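can u pls check wat happens w/ magnesium ion
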Amino acid sequence: MIGQAVRLDAVSKTYGRGDRAVTALDNVSVMIPRGTFTAVMGPSGSGKSTFLHCAAGLDQPTSGSVKIAEQELTGMDETELTHLRRQRVGFVFQAFNLVPALTVRQNITLPLRLAGQRADRRWLEEILHRVGLTGRADHRPAQLSGGQQQRVAIARALITRPDVIFGDEPTGALDTVTAKEILTLLRGCVDEAGQTVVLVTHDPVAASYAHRVLFLADGRIVDHADNPTAEQVAERMTHLGAWA
Ligand code: ADP
Ligand code: MG
């Protein structure tokens, strides 16, 4: 697939002012093509979460331009940003953020109901099938394993047919076997459904599922690797000082 899913041009983000100012992102420019899986790696404090939040329209950069699906976010007010996020973007975090009192089905369709839309039953069934939760629609989160709960969170991210799925350490709370299942599922969203995934991780194995890995250090993209092995990612990270 051709086209730009996400584009950042000269994006900087500074928190605080004066001598308390922290530059979390420093003049970052990157284009993420549609239908690709990108991992963002870097030491703690290198700006990964800030990058993700700016790229996803959750946070406003101090300067520079962000586009999602060719739409310019700069200058949008909060209502417009909320609308864009609901239509274009799905999120998966380390904490599953499911509503305990709601069933799997109700959790998954929550974003639609928040947007005042109804869930298409066939589409819900397809999503449940894709994440391997057919037959669990009436369960509550507490009745599911951690991996199954993260599958619910991914289904909830997919229900609005987003252009881009953003993940911030979505496998961080899972054991390695379950993490691999979740990564395979996310890679399938790209390979089979043509979606775009942008994943922040500190795990070289997780990064090895990506087409491209972006390396952040001190708020800048300092390198990238295409289709790297986990060993190659780990090696590159060593030189960024991550395990120092
Ligand atoms: P990472 O996700 O790679 O650990 P972050 O994007 O969370 O990095 O943070 C990058 C830098 O910005 C860090 O120095 C962090 O302390 C700072 N930072 C992040 N969020 C805030 C905030 N809300 N207020 C002040 N400083 C922040
Ligand atoms: Mg972070």
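The domain at 4-98+148-243 is CATH 3.40.50.300 (Rossmann fold).
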